[in-house]
Fold this sequence. Notes:
By secondary structure, the chain is an alpha/beta fold. 33% of the residues lie in helices and 11% in strands.
Amino acid sequence: ADGDLVGGVFAGAADAAAWDASAVAGARVVVVDANLSKDAYAAVLAALDDATELWFEPTSTAKAAAAFAEIRHRCDVVTPNEAELAALLRACGGAPVGFERDAAALA
């Protein structure tokens, strides 16, 4: 990998057939967002080696929780905004604390 972007995801749900595991061979970082299907997440996870970092971009509060449930055990970096973070915390059984705004208003 020479640092070039080797793929992108459309605003939908990409499935495992869209995933090319060879594209990330030797990558230091793989970034996924919440637009993948369960099968695609499984394919991504299977393609990673132990040294590869997995970064996750939640994309939206509506998509964040379900997508994160598929990969949270393997994520190294998650980049939510405040509303997405609140959704992720709720999905993990926690409650957002310390936010200046009421968590219910973020949903």
